[in-house]
Design brief:
heterodimer; A: alpha+beta; Cytochrome-c3 Hydrogenase, chain B; 8 strands; 46% helix; globular; B: alpha/beta; Beta Polymerase, domain 2; five-stranded mixed sheet; 3 helices; 7 strands
């Protein structure tokens, strides 16, 4: 009997050492070249689609904004647009503009976050420090408008919860000028850097054909020459009233994705400016009584691509089905096309280049469904203390208390 | 294709559909029985050249539904193919992943959470449920309470 050839497998995960989220990649390698990848996800389930069926329509925005901290404006917006489609609700003009401003501020901070992480992943920590430093004021602006740096909770069925006060406009505009200048400096430094060109160009190419077959969205698609953008194709909020461009690059490599995100940041800054200038007067919400039976699809362009929500109502006060599709759910599987045949070091970077978000991707099963134990804070604290005591005992460790220490 | 050409194109597959419905200007629903879903999906992806968005599996009490959502971005449309699986005892539907790799994960997810058999799927392993999740418990079915 012939002995089968055994191939070495490099296991990365279940806790990814670089992306710091729960995912498990097993790379089959031939020397330095990756010949196959097996991925296991779903370590991070929270059961959001199931929970949603037990909540009322106006409670769900707060649930779905917790799918992902970064996309906490685009998820609720997509959901709300689906519900507004079912009920045929016309949103006041001012609310459309406020939604646009919040969503574009979200894109600016998310793209800067990725640029920083991208720098970190290739060992270029100056880029990481810069990008995150310039991202910080965007979060401050969001906090001033909505009360939170993330999880804004600012949209509701029929409009918005918090208005943008007129007296805040000059401050936002001033901050935007600073952010634009800094982002410009950062972008020029990145585009000028021969080391970055050498490291990122030609790496992890996703061809246009593969981009279509894997149905990728957002900067992952636009970096491969597929010019799709929900804001442009099916305009929602106030995007139809603004003057802006869909940014595309044709190369499909990591560099192209970086360029798309950087240039989009400038478009977003411009969009916020225009929206502030045109911000119409009037109410920010209409009263919504009930949601009739029916079904609706809402989608919004999140920083990582199209966020899609499908909602079905039977006329009660809760949805009978609520489906969520985050952009990473289609972007991540494209690794099959972009990573096989690459070197190990490039694969790590290529996997990061789609800006994957695993907490978005996994939402379904019920946490600890086997014996239905739900741990609250006190129970977890108790478990933690018990574990520490058990380990101390096993190791014969005497245990040390603060008051036993002689200080000074 | 403009809107009129698209609607003419969609009418080519009418023989395999129960009906075509439109809820708003840019949302089109195509209804079909599960036996025809493979052919209609192939038509939407390869002939109409729609972008696959996602599929939603639904426990509709008297039957199962699988909704295949597509986008026709040039016209800003969402076209949803709604396939009915009438057999509640042994629900099954043909996989579309062989010609549409983007559907591989969601078909595995629908298999996990609703217990719908996906025929001829290239790799029907668990995606969403944990490895030690009990066999035969499908969390998104209505009989499973939160």
């Amino acid at each position: 009997m012939k002995e089968s050839v055994r191939k070495p497998i490099i296991a990365i995960g279940p806790f990814h050492p670089l992306q710091e989220e729960m995912e498990f990649f097993q790379l089959t390698v031939d020397g330095e070249t990756v010949t196959d990848i097996n991925v296991r996800i779903s370590y991070n389930h929270r059961g959001i689609e199931k929970i949603s069926e037990s909540l009322q329509f106006d409670q769900i925005p707060y649930l779905v904004s917790r799918i992902c901290g970064i996309c906490s404006a685009s998820h609720p917006l997509a959901y709300i647009q689906a519900v507004e489609e079912i009920a045929g609700i016309e949103v006041p003009d001012r609310a459309r503009y406020v939604r646009t401003i919040i969503n574009e501020l979200e894109r600016i901070h998310s793209h800067l976050l990725w640029v920083g992480l991208g720098g970190h992943f290739i060992g270029y920590d100056t880029v990481f420090m810069w990008a995150w430093k310039y991202r910080e004021p965007v979060l401050d602006l969001l906090e001033k408008i909505t009360g939170n740096r993330n999880n804004y909770g600012n949209v509701r069925v029929g409009g918005c919860r918090e208005d943008i006060p007129d007296e805040l406009k000059p401050e936002i505009l001033k901050e935007l000028d600073i952010i634009e200048k800094k982002t410009e400096m950062l972008t020029k430094a990145i585009l000028d850097d021969p080391v970055l060109h050498a490291r990122l160009k030609g790496v992890g190419i996703l061809s246009k054909e593969d981009a279509i077959n894997y149905a990728v969205t957002g900067p992952t698609a636009r970096g491969s020459g597929v010019d799709i953008d929900v804001r442009h194709d099916d305009p929602y909020a106030a995007y139809g009233d603004l003057d802006w461009k869909v940014i595309t690059q044709t190369e499909g490599d990591v560099f192209a994705k970086a360029v798309v995100r950087l240039l989009e940041t400038f478009e977003s800054i411009n969009m916020v400016r225009q929206a502030l200038e045109k911000l119409p007067d009037g109410p920010i919400a209409v009263e919504v009584k009930e949601i009739p039976p029916g079904e609706g699809c809402g989608h919004a362009e999140a920083p990582r691509g199209e966020t899609f929500h499908y909602v079905r109502s039977d006329g009660g006060n809760r949805p009978v089905r609520h489906k969520v599709r985050a952009p990473s759910y289609v972007n991540v599987p494209s690794f099959r096309a972009s990573c096989i045949g690459q070197k190990i070091a490039d694969v790590t970077l290529t996997l990061a280049a789609v800006d994957p978000c695993y907490s978005c991707t996994e939402r379904l099963a019920v946490v600890d469904g086997h014996n239905n134990v739900i741990h609250d804070y006190d129970a977890l604290l108790k478990l933690s203390r018990e574990k520490t005591a058990r380990i101390s005992k096993e190791l014969g460790y005497p245990g040390l208390k603060m008051e036993d220490l002689e200080i000074g | 294709m403009n809107r009129e050409e698209l609607e003419n194109k969609l009418s080519e597959i009418k023989g395999k559909l129960i009906s075509i419905e439109q809820t708003t200007d840019n949302r089109i629903y195509l209804l079909c029985e599960s036996e025809n879903s493979y052919a209609v999906n192939k038509f939407l992806f390869e002939d109409v050249r729609c972008r696959f968005v996602i599929a939603s599996g639904i426990d509709a009490e008297d039957c199962f539904e699988v909704l295949y959502h597509y986008a026709y971005d040039k016209l800003g449309l969402i076209i949803t193919l709604k396939a009915f699986i009438r057999d509640r005892e042994n629900p099954a539907i043909e996989s579309i992943a062989p010609f549409l790799p983007a559907a591989e994960w969601i078909e595995r997810e629908i298999h996990d959470i609703l217990g719908i058999d996906i025929k001829n799927h290239p790799n029907l392993e668990r995606l969403i449920l944990a490895d030690d999740w009990p066999e035969g418990v499908y969390p998104l079915r209505k009989e499973v309470k939160k």
